[in-house]
Amino acid sequence: MSKTRDQLIDELLARDAIRDVILRFAxxxxxxxxxxxxxxxxxxxxxxxxxxxGAPDEFVAWGREFLPSWTESTSHLILNCLIxxxxxxxxxxxxxxxxxxxxxxxxxxxxxxxxxxxxRFERRHGQWRIADRVLAWDWTRKDPIVGGWDDGGAEYRxxxxxxxxxxxxxxxxxxxxxxx
Length: 180
Known about the structure:
Nuclear Transport Factor 2, Chain: A; globular
């Protein structure tokens, strides 16, 4: 049975809203904007990240402690994203490469991870959020840090992991916790 025009439009809008949640999650992690990360989940959601498994509030508490203690910066690059929508439920497989500058006084390093977010999304009250997430690890690579800017690149505008990041000065409505 073929879908009606309204069904196709609803499916396209659902996919766009789901991709937006996935992108806001990645930006939230990279900016340490834990309210934005939390807003990506339903209250009764479940997350299995490997070293962490539990509810959204527990994930945020774990991430708030773990990520800044282990990394000086992160970039979660979102790649292929396949989304199957079935009414008010959707399943998504999203590839991501994580670039992590690790804090290690003895030998700092860059860690690259290729992961997949395997998600079940639900639409409730017209809003899409994660209901269940499993993070599948595909590979990792650890590289020693062998160089950088001699003078720290002072003339460049550097990103930060707080509300002083240039993003928030250009788009004040997107300050951490605004849900944008």
